[in-house]
Each structure stands twice: as C-alpha cells, then as structure tokens.
Design goal:
The complex is a heterotrimer of chains A (312), B (459) and C (293). By secondary structure, chain A is an alpha+beta fold. Chain A has two domains: 37 residues; 229 residues, Alpha-Beta Plaits (2-Layer Sandwich), CATH 3.30.70.20. A five-stranded mixed sheet of chain A has the order 12-11-10-3-13. Chain A has a two-stranded antiparallel ribbon with strand order 1-2. Chain A has a two-stranded antiparallel ribbon with strand order 4-5. Chain A starts with a helix and ends in a 21-residue tail after the last strand. Chain B is mainly α and 459 residues long. Chain B is built from 17 helices and no strands. The two termini of chain B are 14 Å apart. Among the domains of chain C are: 99 residues, Sandwich (Immunoglobulin-like), CATH 2.60.40; 101 residues, Immunoglobulin-like (Sandwich), CATH 2.60.40.10. Chain C has four helices and 17 strands. The N and C termini of chain C lie far apart (98 Å). Chain C has 293 residues and is an alpha+beta fold. The chains are: A alpha+beta (312), B mainly alpha (459), C alpha+beta (293). Chains A and B meet through strand 4, helix 4, helix 5 and strand 8 of A and helix 6 and helix 7 of B. Bound molecules: iron/sulfur cluster (SF4) (2 copies).
Chain lengths: 312, 459, 293
C-alpha cells in the first residue's frame, strides 16, 4: 500500500517535469534549442495564442497548445520512428541493491502496454549464479544492445536499431518468423501467439512502433524503452513505477540518469558502484547497466513473499 | 543421359543382365517402365495420404484463424516441430544432388536408374520445406515482405534465396532428362488409353530426338550437375546457420554446417533406399533396380553413416569435455535427462544399428536395407527434433515469470497433424509423379541395355 | 567526503521511507476504495508564466486510477463570477492545466497570498490550497577559480520582495527528465538571506555543441510557494556533438539500405553467377524447343 502511494507521487512528479519542459521551451526558446525535448518544432503548435497573467501581473501570450497538461506531439511517420530522436543515446541503470522483487515495474509495464496475461516484457528473475554465491533479484528488460543479435537476423527490418540506441519492433512489418527470439540471448522477446487482449480504444488506436501499441497477433513484442514517454519528457513506466528507485534512465550523451527523484552522473555512478552489463562476453554491448547487489537495502528473502506460484 | 560424360566408349553395362546375359529388349523396357495405373493397394495408399493431408490442412485452417496459439510453442520454445520438420525436409532434399550429380560426375553409371527417384524426392521435399516455413510464420500473409523489405544480412533471406534456387535447379534436373522419355510416352501410349497424353504433349512435344537437341540437352544437364552441388551444400549449410548464428548452447557451433550436411546425406541416402525398395516391389522392377544397386547403395549408406557419426562425436564430445555452464544443463538433459531416450534412439536407430546392418554383405540385401533405410529416416527425424527443441529450453537466463506451460514443450495435435500432413504431402507428390511419369529413365535404360555406340535417335 | 555522501544518501532514503509510510497511515483510514483524490499544484516558470495543474484520481484495489473527463471549475480566492479562473476537463491521465486569465489582474495584484478553490458542480472539492507569490533568481559566479551557482529566493510581502529562508530546492544541471545536482548534495536550503550557493563540482559535463549547460533551480511542492523553476545558460560544459556515425555505419545490424559492402559483394556475386547460368540454361531450352518446331 505504501508503495502505491509513492507510485502515484512519482508519476505526478514526472508529469510535472513534462509540463515545465513544454512551457519553458517556448519562453526560453532562444536560450536553448537542443536540450529539452519540447522545442517549438517538436510540439504540434496550433498557431492560436491565448492571453494569460504572469506572476508579476503582466499579460503575456502563449500558444494554445500549452493549455494541455502534455502538449500534443506531431504524429510521427514510420520513417521518423525508425530514425529515432536525434542527439540522444538512451541508457538504463538497474541497481540490484535496491530491488526486493516488488514487481511494480512489471505490473505497470504490463498494464501500460497491455501485455498478454502470463507474458512480461520485464521479468524479475531470482538469480543465483552458483550454490555458494548470493542470490539476488534481477529485473531484466530488453538490453537495447548496440550490436543487437536480434536485429542482425531479422529478415525484413521489422526489428531495427535507432540512432538513439533503442531497438524497436515494427509490428506492421514483422512476419512472425521468431528468428529474433532465438537470437536474443537474454530471452526478452515475447510473441503474440493469439489475438492480443486490448481495451477497445487501444485496439482502434493508430499503430506506432514507439508506443508498441496496439500489439498485433502473430508478431513479436518486447520492452521498448518507452520512447513515446521520452518524447513527452517523461520517464519509462517501469522507472516511474518502482518505489525503490531501482531503475534509472537517462541519456548517455548527457552523462546522467535519473529515477525521478534522484539524478546521478552516469559515469560517476558506474565508476563508484562498479556497474556492469550482462553477458559482456557475447559482444552484444547492452545499453542496460547493472549495479551489483552489494550493501543491499533489502534482504533477498524479503522478495520471496511477492512470488506466487504463477509468477515464479 | 550419361552420354556426355562418356569420353571414351564405355563397355556394355552388364549390371542389368543378371538373369540372363541377353540385353532386355526395347519394347520390354518400355512396357515395364511406363507409368502404371494404381492398383488397389495404390489407391488405398493414396487415399490415406490424402486424408493425412486434409487433416493437416484442417489443422492449418485452425491455426490461421486462431493464431499460433493452437501450437504448443511458447516464448521459450519459439520454434517447434515445424522447424525440425523443415530441417528434415531440407536434409532429405540434399539427396538429389548426391545421387544425380556427385555420382554422375564421378562417372559412376550404376546409379542411372536411381537418378529420377532421387530428384523427385528432392523436389517434393523442397516444396514442403518451403510450405512448412510459411506454416511456421506468424503472419503468412506478409510473406511478400521478404521480397519487398528483404535484408541481406539475415540468414533467413539467404535461406529463401538458396532454397528457391535449389528448387529451380532440381526442377530443371528433373525435367531435362525427362524429355526423351516424354517422347517415348507420346509415341507408345495411345491417347485413348492415356489420360495424361495432353500433359505429355504440353511438356515434351517439341522433343524430336534431333541430334542438336541431344547435344544441347546433354550440355545443359552437365552444367546443372556441376552447379547443383554447391547450391545443395549452400541450402543445408545456410539452414544450419539459422541455428549457428545464434548464441544458444547446442547451436553455437562452428561445426554445424558440416554436421548438417553429413546428416543430410545420410538421411537422403536412406530415403532413396526406402524408395528403391518400395518401387521395386510394387512395380516389379527387379530387373532394373537390382540387388547390385542395393549392394552399392548399402555401402554408400555405411560410409555416410560413419561420416555422420564422426561429426556427431565432434558435436557432442567436445562441448561435453569442457562442460561450459550454458552447455552443461543442455548436454545433461540430452545424455541422461528427459531427452535421453530420444537422444540415444536417434544415435542408435538413426546411425549405429543401420551401420551394423549394412556393413555385412547379408545386410545389403533389399529387405534388411529397407529396414535400415526406414531406421535411418525415422532416426533422422527425431534427430532434427533434438537439434531444435532442447536448446530452446535451456536459455542463458533462468526461465521465470512465465506460466508453467511455457517451460515445457510437447507438440499439440495441430502441430502433429500439420507435420504429418506435410510428410504425407511430400509422399503424395512422389506418388502422383510415379503415376504420371516413368520413375526409371526409359530412354537411358534402353541405351544402357543396348550397344550404345550409336544413339538411338529413332526413339 | 564519500562517507558523508553515503550518510546523506541513507538519511535521504530514511526520509523517503518515512514519508512514504506516514501519509499511508492516514491514507489507510480515509482513502478507502473509490474515494476521489484531488491534487492541485501551482507552477511558476522563470518568474513569468504561471499555471495550475489539477490531477484527479481514485484508488481502487490499492491502485490509483486516473479519473478522466471530469469537469472542474477553479476560482481565485473566493467563489464568485469575478474570481473565475477556468473550467477544465481532465484528460485521459486525469490531468488538467489552466492559466490565470488577464481579467483577474486586479485581484492578483492586490494580495501577495492567494487561495485556489476547485468546484465540482456545486460542491467545493478543494478550498485550502494557497500560495504566496515569489521570485527565484539564479546566477553564476566564479570566485577564486571556483565556479558557483548562486540562487536567491524572495517572497512577496505586500508588494515588496523579501528574502525567504529555509526553502528547500534542487540546484543543478537540467537533464532529461531530471536535475543533476550541480554540487555534492541532492538538495539545498536557503539561508536567512534567502541565498543558496552551490560550488559547481560537475566538471567536464557534456553540454550542447557550444559547451553550454542549462543551470536550473527548482523548488518543488513547497507548502507556501508551490513549484518554482528558473533556468540559466552557462558555458561550463564540454562541447558535445552527438555523432550519428554509429548509426550510419554499415554493419550487420544496419537496415537493408546499409548492408556491409563485403556482404553485398559476396551475395550479388553468387546470385549473379548462379542466375546467369540458370538464364543461360533457359535460353538453351528455348533453343531446343525451336529446333523441335
Ligand atoms: S536484449 Fe535481446 S531483444 Fe533486446 S536488443 Fe538485445 S538481443 Fe535484441
Ligand atoms: S519475428 Fe518479426 S521482428 Fe523477429 S526476426 Fe522475424 S520478422 Fe523480424
């Protein structure tokens, strides 16, 4: 229960950032064109101005688009979605010392992406590397590899790597050969074996590779690093949902990652805590870094109670 | 057909005259070898095959409407018996190149009566290999994407390319040597008694037996024989790369291409042996497919079996010696775990026992050979299953956070129906082929039987 | 230093845990299933644009559900037509945003503290959210080769600006969805003169193509002041041009338009070789057919 409350807090906080980014961009447009997501070009401006009162009691004008909590973004073409966000290189850091298998990340992700019951894009694995080594909980997403074996083998460019480092799937293109599933050493991909169970309004929605919604029968799915959220200036759903701040998301080009409440310099964090990547020996060069489970916030056993028979 | 390969005049072929020393007469040969109506047994056989095909088609209809959920494949075992069946078909199809091309290039002549058997097995297997791949696709209606958006980096595109190429070449290699036979069929079978007359005319009416036609045709066949060998190696190597290009334990092997090819040769040769026996018995072709053929084929099967055994030892002993963490569980499951029975079955029944049967002279008689051939083929099918499935059940990260049913695999009835239906379909193609066209090349047999210093252009 | 950092991090965590637990104890009693929860927030951006953000949700089975498409009327100070700010409808995530219209200027200027009242139909659903007008300033100063970010916070006191002490804020570099602290602490608190000085320790941070960083100070969810944000550009970073060369490389994972040359060469050599032979054979076959006719 305590966690839910925080979950809400988190999303509120992040939402707020989006709003700010949007508004400031217009006002400080001259100040900065490259950093925030919402430069004037990236927002669907209406051209219509509204008058409003400033803090000092002056009357100023602003585009109507900013009246919305999150301004509408222009609909992207498939080509733009395949190119990705210029100048970004997304990374994620997962702090194993903070994870107690709450699976809030998993349920938020499943809910937001309407993942088929039983399947998960994020798995929280109970790891024990050998009998005498310490067990720990390891949330596992798509690693968004820089040498992605899944992309190498896809026959039709249905899964592809973007300039911002994200590996996405185009479910309008995928032929369902499942070669990528065999190729992915992290077993992160899932397949829509049957017609996905979608809310009616989601099912009608225009398909976008960035939101991976609505999913389609006979195609693959996986964690997409929520680029649609990044465009809105928000954090991926799992990052927002985790009450323990396990997930940190950011831009390598900015050298920083954040979990919403704390922000770290990426290079310092990795250096101080000896961050590593999974299966480095395979040469897949993941974009997800792990911080080892040392000085843990929770004992491993505390996570066991969240493990029901079905979710094992 | 071997006319061109014969640089020096060849001695009359005596293999066919086992019963008496006289060559069999032309009319007799034609009479013996033209396609016959199905007897009662033939009808039953064909109907059974058709029923299996229909069952498969119905299962596929269910799969189309409901999605791949009707199979028991899930996220971990994302490839099941469809893919192992595909590998099996590709393997069998390799035999076309073995019998037709390699033996011919080696100037071996006893294989002449077997060439068409081998080619039709190759063609039908390759047809069903392509079909089964489409069955395995989650979105078969997007098949054209492979051509619209095909990306050269993907081994699947390589596979699609080589398979279609191999199909074309095999078809050619089936068709060109058929031309003189078509002429015989047109001439010697009256249209009134022959339902297929029109088809023969359509396929081969231009063949007049002209000298130039023979010259061009022989040359084309030569070129095909040379070309089909690398292409055949490619199709199986590339198919093995579908596995070997991933990191999975059991697939991540540099040995895989050679391992697959040697296995394919073995199962293909086994299939030919089985087909030889069946045609010989059913069509009373003892004079044409003689014990000598069995003797020779038996030796080939032994040789191929030993070769495959060698690659198997390579493939399992070396990883087992090191027992890397990822491999360990996989290998234990195979050697002594839940796949052990199937694994040792495939090793013994698919390789060792046939080798022991065929290594003896007595074992190379038609009936034991037939049994050994069946063993090889059945063992090979299970071997393909073992190559595909157990590996997928041993991923690098533990299988967790999934429903219990995701952690096991046993094919659903739809998968069985489709797999069996595809095997039946391949047999059906062969059966119909035999009904319509001569399975033993008539023209070449005549040439072989008679003094062939002059070509018989009168045919 | 490291140790101090660690202690701070842990104490922060403790605060976090407590702050999570505290409202929950309350929550457990009054926010039973289905009770609507309304959240109003005031934002002041760069001492200029200000807006209100309304968030409406319910709690069901321990999960917060956004309440969509609900209309609210918001008033400034008191519920009367002259004080009407806006009527808003929540979007699909249960949020609505509103600006203060120019016709409320006289009311806005009259007082330094304002109350926002939210009405749902005829019912007052929130009547105690008030803020005090404030001004946040950010500047850079280099003293003895040490770069400093100095932030001043003032609040309005009947038309005069006076220093606001003890205000917690984040001061740092603006980053994707977050603020990377410019110094070593996560947050800073203003002293009695409303001043915060942050020695800038994040050297060699990647900036934009000219090496500019956006410095930002942010007061978050303050009881009196609401949310205030100011930004300033400083050329304290390292010029960074995000290269696209990684993306435009010809690799095995590139798209079909960027297949590696060696692969193209090999594949086409083989394909052309085999298919030209096949075409030759077809021509030969045609020749055979012609001879026969
Ligand atoms: S983790 Fe798997 S699916 Fe994700 S990019 Fe790497 S190989 Fe592809
Ligand atoms: S399943 Fe889809 S995304 Fe995966 S390799 Fe096949 S076509 Fe590409």
């Amino acid at each position: 229960m305590s966690l839910n409350n925080n979950e809400n807090n988190n999303s509120r906080r992040n939402f707020l950032f989006g709003g700010i980014a949007a508004t400031t961009a217009v006002l400080t447009g001259c100040l900065d064109n490259s950093h925030p997501f919402h430069t004037e070009e990236s927002i669907a401006l209406t051209g219509e101005k509204v008058k409003l009162l400033s803090v000092n009691g002056d009357v100023i004008e602003i585009d109507r688009a900013f009246l919305k909590p999150v301004p509408d973004l222009p609909t992207l073409t498939n080509d733009e979605e395949r190119k990705g966000i210029a100048g970004k290189k997304f990374v994620m850091v997962i702090d194993l010392a903070r994870c107690k298998n709450l699976r809030k990340c998993q349920s938020a992700c499943n809910h937001m992406h309407q993942v088929h019951p039983g399947q998960n894009w994020i798995k929280v694995l109970g790891m024990e590397d050998s009998i005498h080594s310490a067990p720990y909980w390891q949330p596992t997403t798509c690693m968004h590899c820089d040498e992605p074996p899944c992309v190498k083998v896809c026959p039709v460019d249905a899964t592809f790597k973007r300039q911002d480092g994200i590996v996405l799937i185009d479910s309008d293109r995928c032929i369902g050969c499942r070669f990528c599933m065999a190729a992915c050493p992290y077993s992160t991909r899932v397949f829509n074996w049957e017609e996905p169970q979608l809310d009616p309004q989601v099912a009608e929605q225009h398909y976008s590779c960035e939101s991976s919604m609505p999913q389609k029968k006979g195609t693959v799915g996986k964690c997409d690093f929520c680029p649609d959220m990044s465009r809105k200036g928000e954090l991926p759903h799992c990052v927002q949902a985790c009450p323990n701040g396990v997930f940190m998301f950011g831009d390598l080009n900015e050298d920083s990652v954040t979990n919403g409440s704390e922000t770290f310099r990426f290079s310092d964090l990795i250096k101080d805590k000896a961050g590593y990547r999974l299966m480095e020996d395979l040469g897949t060069k993941p974009s997800v870094y792990y911080l080892p489970p040392v000085n843990r916030n929770f004992p491993y056993e505390s996570g066991l109670e969240n493990q029901t028979k079905e979710t094992k | 057909m071997n006319l061109v390969w014969k640089i020096k005049p060849r001695k009359p072929n005596k293999y066919y005259n086992v019963e008496n020393n006289n060559p069999i007469s032309r009319d007799r040969i034609i009479n013996d070898l033209v396609p016959k109506r199905f007897g009662k047994r033939g009808m039953i056989w064909t109907s059974i095959l058709i029923i299996f095909c229909l069952a498969g088609a119905y299962a596929y209809y269910r799969q189309l409407t409901q999605g791949l959920v009707v199979t028991n494949m899930r996220d971990y075992v994302s490839w099941g018996i469809y893919i192992s069946n595909f590998v099996f078909f590709v393997a069998i199809s390799l035999v076309g190149s073995l019998i037709t091309a390699i033996l011919r290039l080696a100037d071996v002549h006893w294989s002449t009566p077997l060439t068409r058997i081998a080619e039709i097995i190759a063609v039908s297997a390759i047809v069903f290999a392509s079909l089964i791949i489409i069955v395995d696709m989650g979105r078969p209606e997007r098949f054209m994407n492979l051509f619209l958006h095909g990306r050269l980096q993907s081994p699947i595109i390589w596979d699609v390319t080589v398979i279609s190429t191999y199909f074309l070449i095999s078809l050619f290699l089936l068709y060109l040597p058929l031309l003189p036979d078509l002429k015989i069929l047109i001439l010697h079978r009256k249209p009134s008694v022959n339902k297929f007359h029109k088809l023969y005319v359509f396929l081969g009416s231009f063949w007049k037996g002209h000298k130039d036609q023979f010259r061009i045709n022989d040359k084309s066949i030569n070129i095909l024989c040379v070309m089909i060998i690398p292409v055949a190696f490619c199709i199986h190597t590339v198919t093995s790369w579908l596995f070997a290009t991933t990191y999975r334990p059991g697939w991540d092997s540099t040995n895989f291409g050679a391992y697959f090819i040697s296995g394919a040769f073995l199962v293909g040769a086994g299939a030919v042996v089985v087909a030889m026996y069946v045609f010989r018995r059913y069509y009373k072709l003892e004079k044409y497919i003689t014990e000598l053929h069995f003797e020779k084929m038996g030796k080939i099967v032994v040789m191929l079996g030993l070769l495959y055994l060698y690659f198997n030892i390579n493939e399992y002993l070396i990883p087992a010696f090191k027992m890397k963490k990822a491999e360990e569980e996989h290998l234990r499951e195979l050697f002594s775990g839940s796949y052990a029975i199937m694994f040792w079955f495939a090793i013994f029944v698919g390789m060792l026992i046939p080798i022991f049967i065929l290594i003896t002279k007595k074992g190379r008689k038609p009936l034991p050979m037939f049994i050994a051939g069946i063993m090889v083929v059945v063992g090979a099918w299970f071997k393909r299953y073992l190559i595909v499935t157990p590996t997928l059940l041993h991923p690098f990260l533990p299988m967790q956070n999934v429903p219990e049913s995701y952690k096991h695999y046993f094919p659903s009835w739809e998968e069985w129906a489709i797999a069996i239906g595809s095997l039946a379909g391949a047999l059906l193609i062969i059966t119909f082929f035999v009904r319509i066209l001569p399975i033993i090349p008539i023209y070449e047999t005549i040439i072989e039987q008679n003094e062939e210093s002059q070509k018989d252009h009168s045919l | 230093m490291k140790k101090a950092k660690k202690t701070i991090r842990y104490s922060l965590l403790l605060v976090l845990v407590i702050s999570i637990l505290m409202p929950n104890i309350v929550d457990a009693q009054d926010a039973s299933d289905g009770t609507p929860i309304l959240k109003l927030q005031y934002f002041n951006i760069n001492n200029s644009v200000q807006y209100l953000l309304l968030e409406s949700s319910t709690k069901k089975n321990k999960v917060f559900l956004a309440q969509k498409n609900i209309s609210y009327k918001v008033y400034l100070d008191s519920v009367s037509s002259g004080n009407f700010i806006s009527e808003v409808k929540t979007n699909e995530s249960g949020k609505a945003k509103m600006f203060i219209p120019p016709n409320l200027k006289s009311i806005w200027d009259k007082s330094s503290t304002h109350l926002f009242i939210v009405m749902k139909g005829d019912e007052q659903v929130s009547s105690d959210y008030s803020i005090t007008k404030a001004r946040l300033e950010i500047d850079t100063a280099t003293i003895d080769d040490i770069k400093n970010i100095s932030v001043k916070i003032f609040k309005d006191d009947n038309g005069k600006l006076i220093a606001a002490p003890d205000i917690e804020m984040k001061v740092g570099i603006k980053r994707l969805v977050g603020i990377l602290s410019g110094g070593d602490e996560e947050t800073y608190t203003s002293d009695s003169t409303g001043l915060v000085t942050v020695p800038f320790t994040k050297i060699n941070m990647p900036g934009d193509s000219l090496g500019n960083l956006i410095l930002i100070a942010k007061i978050e969810d303050n009881e009196i002041l609401g949310n205030i944000i100011v930004e300033k550009k400083a050329s304290w970073g390292v010029p960074t041009v995000a290269g696209e060369d990684f993306f435009s490389k010809r690799e095995l994972w590139s798209t079909r338009f960027r297949s590696p040359y060696w692969l193209l060469f090999m594949a086409y050599a083989i394909i052309i070789g085999v298919y030209s032979t096949l075409i030759y054979l077809i021509l030969q076959l045609i020749k055979t057919i012609k001879i026969g006719k």
